[in-house]
Amino acid sequence: MPLPDPTEKRMEVLTERIGQRDEPSGKRKDYADNLWKNEGDVKESLRDVLRRMAPGILGCCMYCGSTTGSDIEHFEPRESSPLQTFRWTNHLLACGPCNSKYKGTWWECDAETGEPLLIDPTRDDPFAHLFLDLRNGIYRSPTVKGKTTIKVLGLNLDERQFPVARQLARKNAWQVLRNWSRARYDDDKNGMRDALDVLRLYPFADVWQAMLRQAVMPGADIIMRDEPPWALALLRDEELRAATLVEFPVSVIPATNH
User: Fold this and answer.
1) Where are the beta strands (DSSP E) in the chain?
2) How far are the Cα atoms of 18, 162, 165, 180, 209 from residue 170, in angstroms, in the given order?
3) How far apart are CA 74 and CA 165, in angstroms?
4) pLDDT tens, residue by residue, 80-135
5) Which pLDDT value is given to residue 255?
6) How many Å apart are CA 210 and CA 212, to the nearest integer?
7) Scanning 110, 111, 162, 252, which has the fewest C-beta atoms within 10 Å of its C-beta?
8) CA 210 to CA 84: how far, in whole Å?
9) Rg (CA), the chain
10) Distance between CA atoms of 239 and 228, rounded to whole angstroms?
11) 3-class state of residue 201 by DSSP
12) Can you give the residue ranges of every domain in the chain?
């Protein structure tokens, strides 16, 4: 999703200014921090676009998906690279705890590839690194990037109460899905639309996305053996999938035509 032209141009100017500061003296970081603090219009424009990209009607945190994202998060922290302060592709929408308490200034990359060890939904498909156990709401991972993301963001910590909330979101999703199926049977277009809006926009949208993906995986009958008997058929419904399945990575590529 592109930024408004004035915002994009302003960010380019600010990035150029930061680059002109003397890096060895330490002035670049201080200068970048000061610009970030005072560029209220730029930040509000960024936040508006990020909210429209994020799941949930008010824009949920792009890291945990649990609550409204209140903060503009620098994926690569300013402490690591001040030049990334106003780079559009370095911004995410995050909740306060993810931004400050858990992720904060954490930044590590793979020693061989240089790839960040944290999932960025604008660069990665989270579901290539994370598998949600729908029965207990716990994330597991076959990759280093996935394991690191779970640990750094505390995605399975009891103190964050995510596993319990994900189990509840799964139960709610089944009820909404049943409502959608009944509305379609009754040719109730409004009821179908309302149900789809709930599935697309409620917090913990990652649970619904995991359900859709696991329904078409090899061995889905075993993976989802505890679900209602009508579950798999509906989750594989082409109309439903076309309306609610989100493709990753989410694009944050700026506009190229001015």
Assistant:
1) 71-74, 91-94, 131-133, 138-140
2) 46, 12, 9, 15, 10
3) 27
4) 999 999 999 999 999 999 999 999 999 999 999 999 999 999 999 999 999 999 99
5) 42
6) 5
7) 111
8) 32
9) 20
10) 20
11) helix
12) 1-107, 162-244
